[in-house]
Structure formats: structure tokens, C-alpha cells
Write a structure and sequence with these properties.
The protein is built from eight helices and 20 strands. Helix 2 crosses helix 7 (244-253) and helix 3 (81-88) packs across helix 4 (136-147). 18% of the residues lie in helices and 33% in strands. The chain is globular, with a radius of gyration of 21 Å.
Length: 384
């Protein structure tokens, strides 16, 4: 199948080759560890360090170490920051307590999703935002335009910082062993500023794997020392370096959307399975009127099958012999040992248990609709 032709990025004349991918501040360490690389979102990133299956299982059973320095990191501050973000984003950042994190989105005027992101409130007038790497430029441009007129500042600090995550049931034990005792004070979806190894960091108990875990934003110059500290502290706990391939199967098992697959400019939050985050509020926000007027024309559902054949993104989904939608993400689940997929279905949402077929390279393969997420972490105590 040929890939669709992508129009030139805004500001780049037709025919000019794209800029070379950016390297993470941790690139030399990844190379020394034998990583295999791929280009993603304008960056050259580790796809895997060894076995994708072993990396996935390490996160589910112990912990994984991720370099997320490609993610966009933005700072918004000033007396009008809260009101400005209320207008710019889905949700109500002004209602967030200090030290809280919230999943949010930035919408187009027609209600389509420009990007999904995490908003951290670090102070009364200080917010920290993590957005997707590929959407960094468009998010910065949209935020700057929407904050104009509010007494607020916006700074893109992506290239000045690194982002490192530890995810898995032993994540807290590893953070403690690495000397960041402040981690134990954080509840889920909480954030705090701290000092680690002499460097100021933003520490958050968030993640993209369905497991407990932490994300650490630090100055670029601190990335190597912090990464090395975590590698050393994590050895007794089974910590593994993890690349993008396992990160994708982990987030799929957890039912978490990936921009460009479950979410895009043609999809509203409800159509991308994120309707619960659209909450009524008195303040206006860009896209609110469109969401009120725009009918939900498709639904995101989970599919699970037998056998070993994975349904990949773009494969048609049939119900009662008629094509009703397409796969948005799919893989053979390492945890469940069965193929799982997220699918966008046109029209009414089929009920859990509904049999469907997926056209896998010309062969109709049975699946059935199932609940999302596919995997939930078991109740467990932190291992010391």
C-alpha cells in the first residue's frame, strides 16, 4: 500500500526537503546501549533496545525507563494564564488545584482535535503543558493566538529540557532508590517541583502505559546524570530501557488514544472515545459551539480476537457483511496473548459482544466488540 502524500509543512516551500530529525539529549546513551532507531514526530528515537516483548513485559512486571524528550514542553504564566487556558483548551485549567495534572485537548473551531495534551498547574499563575511532538508547532501557534489579549506568556522550552519516565509496579521503589523521595508524596495525576541531583525538575505521577509511574522534566544538561542514576538504581528491581515499539503496545492495552490514529482534525473528542472529558462549563472555549451542534457520527470501540493475526491500522471492519469502519490501532497483545484493536465505527456504537470481521489482507477474520481498556493493572502495594 502506498503511503498518502503529505503536503508540505506550513512555512516550508514545496520541494524543499524536510529538516533532519532532532536527536534526544540522551542519544549517545541510547547508542551505547545498542538501541535500534526510528524517525518519529521530527525526532530520531529508540524503537527498541532488544526484544519488544521483553521490554513490554518488564513494564507490566517490574518497570521500564523511557526517553520522552521528543514531547513538546510548554510553559504558560501570568495573571491571565488560567483564564486564557480556559478559552484555549477543552476543560477548565482555572479550576485545577495547584499540583494537579489534567488530560485536555486543543480543538479547532469545528470541534476537531488539534492535539491532546496534559496540563499541570504548578502555581496560581504557572502552568506546564506536555503536547505531542509532531504537533508542537501547530499547538504553539494556536496557543499563542488564543492567549493574545490575556495577560499571559507562552514559552516553548522543548529544546531546553528533557523528559524521562519510569513506569511499572516497581516505579516508586526505583524513584526512592534513586534519591527522589518526593515521589512518595505524589498521588496519581499530581505534580510538583523538586530538586534532584542538584537540578530543578518537574515531577509528575502520570504516564502512558496503564501502570503506576512517574515522568520527570529536567534541564537538558541534567538528562544524562538523571538517566544514569535511574539505570543504576533500577538494576535490582528489573528496570529495562524501553523503546517506542513497546510503548505503543502498552498504551494500546491500556486503551489510550494516539494522535493521528484515534484522534485527528476530523474527529471530535466524543468520536475519539474521549467524550467524558467534554464537561459543561460557563466559560467559553474554542470549539465549544461546534461540539454542541455537531452530531456524533462515529464511535471508538475495542475489538478482541482469537488466534495470532493482528488487525493493523487502516484495515476495514465489517458488521453483518457491511464495511462499517476501520481499525485505528491494533496489535497482538503481549499481556493477553490475543489480538486487540481500537476501531472507529460509523453510525451507532455496536454493543459489547457484537461479532465483527476484520479484513486482514483479504481474509475476513473474526473479532468481537469488547470493553476498553483491554488491560487494568492489578491492585498491588509498592515494592520497597
Amino acid at each position: 500500500m502506498t503511503e498518502p502524500v503529505t503536503p508540505p509543512a506550513p512555512g516550508r516551500p514545496p520541494g524543499r526537503p524536510p529538516a533532519p530529525p532532532l536527536d534526544s539529549p540522551l542519544d549517545s546513551r541510547h547508542r551505547a546501549a545498542g538501541a535500534k532507531f526510528t524517525d518519529f514526530g521530527g525526532w530520531r528515537l529508540p524503537l527498541r533496545f532488544g526484544s519488544e516483548l521483553a521490554e513490554h513485559q518488564a513494564v507490566r512486571q517490574a518497570a521500564g525507563l523511557f526517553d520522552l524528550s521528543h514531547m513538546a514542553q510548554l510553559e504558560v504564566g501570568g495573571p491571565g494564564a488560567a483564564d486564557g487556558l480556559d478559552f484555549a483548551l477543552l476543560g477548565a485549567p482555572s479550576l485545577q488545584a495547584e499540583g494537579r495534572a489534567a488530560y485536555s485537548m486543543i480543538l479547532a473551531q469545528d470541534g476537531g482535535v488539534i492535539d491532546d495534551l496534559i496540563v499541570y498547574r504548578l502555581g496560581r499563575e504557572r502552568f506546564f503543558i506536555i503536547a505531542n511532538a509532531a504537533n508542537r508547532a501547530v499547538v504553539v501557534e494556536a496557543l499563542a493566538r488564543r492567549l493574545d489579549g490575556f495577560d499571559a506568556t507562552l514559552a516553548d522550552v522543548t529544546l531546553e529540557r528533557a523528559l524521562i519516565a519510569v513506569q511499572g509496579p516497581r516505579a516508586l521503589a526505583i524513584m526512592r532508590a534513586a534519591g527522589l523521595v518526593r515521589a512518595a508524596d505524589l498521588g496519581y495525576y499530581r505534580a510538583a517541583e523538586a530538586e534532584w541531583e542538584g537540578w530543578p525538575v518537574v515531577l509528575a505521577r502520570t504516564g502512558y502505559t496503564g501502570e503506576d509511574g512517574f515522568e520527570v522534566s529536567c534541564p537538558k544538561a541534567a538528562a544524562g546524570a538523571i538517566w544514569d542514576r535511574l539505570v543504576l538504581a533500577g538494576r535490582p528491581f528489573g528496570l529495562a530501557r524501553v523503546g517506542l515499539a513497546a510503548r505503543d503496545t502498552l498504551r494500546l492495552e491500556a486503551g489510550m488514544p494516539l494522535y493521528g490514529h484515534e484522534l485527528d482534525r476530523q474527529t471530535t473528542p466524543a468520536e475519539g472515545g474521549q467524550g467524558a472529558f467534554v464537561r459543561p462549563k460557563e466559560t467559553d472555549f474554542v470549539g465549544r459551539a461546534a461540539l454542541a451542534d455537531r452530531a456524533v457520527s462515529k464511535h471508538l470501540v475495542g475489538l478482541i480476537g482469537d488466534g495470532r493475526r493482528a488487525a493493523r491500522a487502516g484495515y476495514p471492519v465489517l458488521i453483518d457483511g457491511q464495511v462499517r469502519g476501520r481499525i485505528t490501532s491494533g496489535a497482538l497483545s503481549p499481556t493477553l496473548g490475543r489480538p486487540i484493536a481500537l476501531a472507529s465505527i460509523n453510525g451507532p456504537a455496536p454493543a459489547v459482544g457484537t461479532p465483527v470481521e476484520v479484513d486482514i489482507r483479504g481474509q475476513l477474520t473474526p473479532f468481537q466488540v469488547t470493553s476498553i481498556p483491554f488491560y487494568r493493572k492489578p491492585n498491588q502495594k509498592d515494592e520497597l
